[in-house]
Amino acid sequence: MNKWLKTILLLIGSAFLTRLIPFSSLFRNLDTMIHEFGHALMTLLLSGSVLRIELYADHSGVTYSAIQEGGKAILVSLSGYLLASLFALLLFYLYSKGRHDWGLILATGVALIMLLLYVRGSFGMMWLGGFIALNILMLVVWKKASKYYYLLLAFLTLEESVMGSLFLVYAAAVSPSRAGDASNLARMTPVPAIFWATLFFIFSLLCAEWALGLFFKRERVQTKLGSR
Questions:
Q1: Mind listing the pLDDT tens digit for each residue in 20-40?
Q2: What whole-number distance in Å separates Cα of residue 28 and Cα of residue 157?
Q3: What SS3 state is found at 149?
């Protein structure tokens, strides 16, 4: 079977199964958190200023920042979707190395930075606080369950990174002026929003293919070890 078709089918299956898990919708905001953190991080790396970040219950978010127009603003707009896809890939890479605890520590650290410095909306602050507390419980108290919790986060983040960019492609095709980061990039460059949205989608699929490859490689190794 073509590897891209296999990746898409696995993502569809994962999306269906994870939606059967109670409260899984709440954890989909992890992808939003990383997306907005990507904008904030790039802004700071380019000597800009992050004013505040909003996270919403519908899994959307927005980062308000001050950055010089031109190339720097383009990089900031690019960073959200790209970092979200790379973070999902990183979660699976750490799992493949048997270091899911590092992934939880990293996600907790990002959430703590955002809570202390940037997020001020009521939902965003409550969600970040709850996410941090649950991660600490998994790392310290419920260690046996932490692996399965981590895999839930990893698969949800991977799904959201792909589905979010796919929705952006649809939005860019139907209403280019309302396609979020793709619209911003279209305003700053001579390239239309549909190009940027498609670029994000292809990149997310590439990361998903790598991530799932790492996951199944790890599972095969564990199966072989268990059969000895």
A1: 677 778 889 999 999 999 999
A2: 6
A3: helix
